[in-house]
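Deviations from the work plan: none for this task. Representative record:
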Amino acid sequence: MTSHNRTPDTEPDTQPGTKGRAVWREITDFMRNDLSDGYYQPGQALPGESQLADFYRTSRPTVRKAIAQLAAEGLLTVSHGRGTFVRHRPDRRLITIEHGNGPRADLLSPAYDLRAAGWEPVSVPSDAAREGIEHLQPLTHSCGVEAAGILGVRSSHTVVYRFAFWQHTKTRARIYLDSNTLAEHVGTLEGQGIDRHFIPDAEPVDYYAHLADKHGPLNWTTTVHAEMPTGDTIEDLRMEPTGTPVLVIRRVMLSHDGRPLEFTEIFAPADRFEATSSHDHGSSNAAADYAVLSL
Amino acid sequence: MTSHNRTPDTEPDTQPGTKGRAVWREITDFMRNDLSDGYYQPGQALPGESQLADFYRTSRPTVRKAIAQLAAEGLLTVSHGRGTFVRHRPDRRLITIEHGNGPRADLLSPAYDLRAAGWEPVSVPSDAAREGIEHLQPLTHSCGVEAAGILGVRSSHTVVYRFAFWQHTKTRARIYLDSNTLAEHVGTLEGQGIDRHFIPDAEPVDYYAHLADKHGPLNWTTTVHAEMPTGDTIEDLRMEPTGTPVLVIRRVMLSHDGRPLEFTEIFAPADRFEATSSHDHGSSNAAADYAVLSL
DNA sequence: CATCATTTGTGCGTATGTATC
DNA sequence: AGATACATACGCACAAATGAT
């Protein structure tokens, strides 16, 4: 039994279902109001589905629909066998996008000291489906449509792909990172058909220097968007089962004449991370005196 | 009748439900594979729910659950009376976050020429619930917990709030913008209790100059995160009913000693917009030679 | 450790409403 | 007007997870 017991007297407004609106939508609105009013506090358990069904004079499937909607909005967390709980307000860590002149750090380089930054590599459930392929191991393969679009090539083009899952040591929040480099810039392809194989010219640690040598001075573009997790992403990143988008941060490395050479992306649960944009104050004493959002 | 007719022969793999996994999850995976394999093309209608139920030898509610999941992942769009369709791959417009030295533009200033930038103001369904409050009209009120957290004040603090809904003239994509200014910096509060009222020192057009005079040189911080739409947001921004996050871009104006004075935010459907970070090349001839993602 | 009550998850059948073409 | 498609709502039964006893 939950600690509190709602009675119709304490409930605001009238009974739902009177108008043409669907009953479950009415209940959704009632409950959402109760949440924003603070009638239910973060972390608190809601009454059981059966109790809510009795209270709203409807059936359990209808209440479940309303709860599912609020969970999809990120307001509730439903836990099998335990109950339904009010989600805590997200407390997000910053991922900084920094542009400037100076030393660079490739997150996916073996030289990058992730532990010093508070992270550790982790294995994830979907590793089981990737027989023998280890994190950060360079993998040469045909890129998908997504990567092809970014790199400006056809989707059969060969890229060197590296990836890793990291977990923040303290918060245990997880992210996924990967890097896609056009294969022809860091090695050569020999042979045809099944015999086709890749001979690297450089090791991952030296990719940046190698590319800068051939195509520099380099340019960079960074974008941020969001999408809903699909497939194994929720388990791999240990996300809430519903109601949490994935923040996708992409950094594209361009040659001096604007051709894409490589891109690195970070996938992070949007309830635990946000991106922030800054610029290098070290190289110039004058701080920026404006920040424009252009559409 | 849809143009194609799936038969068990053309279906990959085996029948679902044999293992411990839920049937609807199995079906979700089957269908997701069919989508990524290109068996179903973007824009194409899927077979009806009853047909799918027959095909997978299950009931319509179970198929509906699978379809609902894929819609929540942003892969399908369900349309009452018409059918279920494969969503097109998102084509996103850029919202540029630009830092540098030079002239600034306040998106919510009456002086901003939105039409020249390809936008027009629109009224939205939820206007009906905001009796008499017009877009861009400065409104003095107690700020909520969200704004209070950003501005570093308590949630009863008085702020000047302005907002607007814009629609892109060509794509008809919509965004919501608002600005929250700490009231004491642009006017004075007089009286107590019900008689309490706000006397402005400056007009919205002059807010920037006014604040820069008193607190400059100003600093700026910009962040990007994502959340799921709630309440009227889906209708107001004409978003897909499910499976689309909202991208939230916030720009905080800080006094020279780091106190928040104002913040502007943009809410944009994440399937139609992405944020990109750049810096002012005009003020310095040297392009940035690196872009770091710091965690 | 086993058992039990509670709570959510899954699946089906059925009926009816409503939007679209 | 009719056919087709998705939407809503209810009832029922049983499974599975959890936490307390």
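Chain A has six helices and 14 strands.
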